[in-house]
Amino acid sequence: MVINQLEEDRKAAVRGKYRRLYLHLCNLPPGEWRASFDDIEAIIGFELPASARAHRAWWANHHSAGRHSRAKAWNAAGWERVEVDLRGESVLFRRVQGVADAGPSLDEAWPVHSVGAWPEGLSLSRRDIYGERV
Description:
The chain is of the alpha+beta class. It is built from seven helices and three strands. It has one domain (3-133). A three-stranded antiparallel beta sheet has the order 1-3-2. It is elongated, with a radius of gyration of 20 Å.
């Protein structure tokens, strides 16, 4: 995978639907990880589509442009899907050797969100906070 493509996939993965799977995989040690479909649903926070339980192709790695967000999530984290057991509802991932991934950046793990405008009348001055005790 080209470095620029890997960086683009990381950007897409951290903002995508399967962001939590990406972050989970980034934090796993090298090797293999077998997960039940229920485990993956617990990580991502929503149910997998029916096609994930019915079609092996849903779990394809897609090593080309136009990949699905789920494949970008595990590929960008340095993993690839090795096997799928549709009957047993489990999937095996393996850390890909040669993918230099230091894990998520701080911005990815803890994104900055705007809280909007400062509330009118709110002050952080010592006098406003402590009143007469200052």
